[in-house]
Amino acid sequence: MTFSSDETGRTTQRGVNVLALVKNGERYVFLYDDDSPAALLQTLGRYAANPELSFTWYDAAILSQKIRRLKRERDMARLAGRGPLFDEPAGD
């Protein structure tokens, strides 16, 4: 978990998401934060297009669906009040 502060001095808690695939003895582990799923989706496409990897377009599609589903669930939880909607002020 990482913390950052913006120009107003508010501290934001940012989690790191972990997405993993184990396939034929190989491990693909992807770390991303809530602001970077688009970059991860591009990475999945690059891996799938690389003939030197066993990572396939099917793998990329399955992991892409999971990324989108997790984002939807997080967004729904925030809207339902089960997650932080607003940043908490930094302690003095």
Explain the layout of strands and helices.
Layout: E1 2-5, E2 11-14, E3 17-23, E4 26-32, H1 37-49, H2 57-79
Antiparallel strand pairs: 1-2, 3-4
Query: What spatial form do the alpha-carbon principal axes imply?
Result: elongated
Query: Distance N terminus to C terminus?
Result: 21 Å
Please count the helical segments: 2
Give the H and E element order. EEEEHH
Structural class: alpha+beta
Description of the molecule:
This protein has 92 residues and is an alpha+beta fold. The chain has one domain (2-79). The chain contains 2 helices and 4 strands. The chain has a two-stranded antiparallel ribbon. Strands 3-4 form a two-stranded antiparallel ribbon. A hairpin with a 2-residue loop joins strand 3 (17-23) and strand 4. The radius of gyration is 16 Å and the shape is elongated.
Short summary:
By secondary structure, this protein is α+β, with helices and mostly antiparallel strands. The protein has two helices and four strands; from the N terminus they run E-E-E-E-H-H.
